Amino acid sequence: MHLILFIVFAVLCLTGAINLLLQTHPINSALSLIVVMTSLAVLYLLLGAEFLAAAQVIVYAGAIMVLFTFVVMLLNAGREERTLGSRAARTVGFPAVVAILAVIATTILRVQGLGTAGMQDHITSTADLSAVLFTKLLLPFEVTSVLILIAILGSVALARHGDGERPDSN
Amino acid sequence: MLFCLGIVGFLIKRNLITMFMSIELMLNAVNLSFVTFAHQWHEVKGQIFVFFVMMVAAAEAAVGLAIIIAVFRARATLAVDRIDLMKL
User: Fold this and answer.
1) Whole-structure pTM over 0.80, yes or no?
2) Alpha helices in chain B (DSSP H)
3) Alpha-carbon torsion (B62, B65, B70, B73), positive or negative
4) Which stretches of chain A are DSSP H helices?
5) Taking CB atoms and an 8 Å cutoff, what residues of chain A touch B9?
6) Please, are residues A20 and B14 in contact by the beta-carbon 8 Å criterion?
7) Chain A: residue whose CA lies nearest to B36
8) Which ipTM did the prediction report?
9) Which among A101, B25, B46, B78 has most CB atoms closer than 10 A?
């Protein structure tokens, strides 16, 4: 049962990712990215990470993708023009991608005992997660809140800057 | 396992907001590998790291999209090939 669920959602995830690349319209790419995020949440659930599955749906499929679709609609982004890309991307980029793929694959295959652990045999509950998060890792947690505050201020400053410039240029 | 997702994430070198989406895809691939190995070795810290990656990704998405809006206001285009000058 778990294996079937895993295969179904892994295939869904990969097809969503491939579809993201093949689509020329940004809104279609955003929608297929939502498919990828949601199926990843199911995969997290299968791997026993229930809190992360919820956080994935809320943060990624909710907040970030709403932001993406909002920007796509706001900018009225049209169909992407087909370009061949730069020569450097073709000569260096694609061999680099193949090399990275090979390195990752060999590293993972060398790890012993992969795939032998059954699904759902070890569920990390939210209580366990938060016990470590709020005792040992409290300082990084608080620092992240400062980071998010800085990010909010930065994005507001960027948006306001563009707004204030427009009367000057006109 | 399905780390092919990371490869798919790396493969996406195309112009537009799509580039930004592919960055998110790469972050997700890394998150998935974190969760997988945390599950494999019964570690909680892997999942906590994924939590931090999610928060940083949210901040990064907000700032990146603000930058995209600023660039669009200055250039009125989203094609990367047209945005080849540092001067706005």
Assistant:
1) no
2) 4-11, 17-40, 45-75
3) negative
4) 2-22, 26-46, 50-55, 65-75, 87-88, 94-110, 126-135, 138-169
5) 17
6) no
7) A47
8) 0.77
9) B25
Q: What is the pLDDT of residue B15?
A: 46
> Of all helices (H) and strands (E), which one includes residue A89?
none
Structure-token match 């995209």, residue found: B68
Contact state of A71 with B65 under an 8 Å Cβ cutoff: yes
Q: What is the Cα–Cα distance from A76 to A40, expressed in whole angstroms?
A: 29
| Residue A51's pLDDT band (cuts 50, 70, 90) | confident
> With contact defined as beta carbons under 8 Å apart, do A48 and A25 qualify?
no
Predicted local confidence at residue B61, as pLDDT = 86
- pLDDT for A170 beyond 50: no
Work out the average pLDDT over A9-30.
81
Q: Do A10 and B2 touch (CB under 8 A)?
A: yes
Tokens of B87: 């001067």
Which one of B3, B44, B75 makes the best mutation probe of the A interface by having the most chain A beta carbons within 10 Å?
A: B44
pLDDT of A154 reads 87
Q: Which residue has the higher pLDDT, A23 or A43?
A: A43
Question: What are the residues whose beta carbons fall under 8 Å from the beta carbon of A84, sequence distance 6 or more?
Answer: A90
